[in-house]
Amino acid sequence: METKEEITGRVYLSGKMRGLTQRQYRAHFQKATNELIIKHHVHPSQIINPCYIARAVPCFEDDEYLELDFKILKRCHAIYMLNNWQDSEGARAEKEKAEELGLKIYYEPEEELKLKWKKKK
């Protein structure tokens, strides 16, 4: 039986959002949230999902979101990089900040991204 590492403390999710539809990035971030809860035993209240931040403050510019993300990262113990993080300027900056802060960095396994998008007829 495969054992997954237990992740403790507050975890910030980081991945690509710009260039994807809301449905696509929200589904990917939710999938990552579920992975953290089920496989790594992270309590839902300890997962910081930036999709909710964007929904709560829709009028911010990109640099304002990044500034807010950095403030939130300072209060986290780890960052969980979604497997599309390298395609995102913001996620790369968040990873750099997490390294600077000495946070633990976890990566979503490549095989976990198997999202299929269906168009409604």
Low-confidence stretches: none
Sheet with the most strands, sense and barrel status = 4 strands, parallel
Order of helices and strands: EHEHHEHE
Described by the principal axes of the CA atoms, the overall outline is globular
What is the tally of helical segments? 4
Strand order of the largest sheet: 2-1-3-4
Query: What is the straight-line distance between the termini?
Result: 41 Å
Helix content: 40-55%
Which structural class do you get from the secondary structure elements? alpha/beta
The average pLDDT score comes to 88
Percent in strands: 5-15%
Using DSSP, what is the number of strands? Answer: 4
How big is the Rg?
A: 14 Å
Fold and architecture overview:
The chain is of the alpha/beta class and 121 residues long. The protein is built from four helices and four strands. The protein has helices at 22-40, 50-56, 62-73, 89-101; strands at residues 11-14, 47-48, 78-81, 104-107. A four-stranded parallel β-sheet has the order 2-1-3-4, sandwiched between helices. Helix 3 packs parallel to helix 4 (89-101). The longest helix is centred in the first third of the chain and has 19 residues, at 22-40.
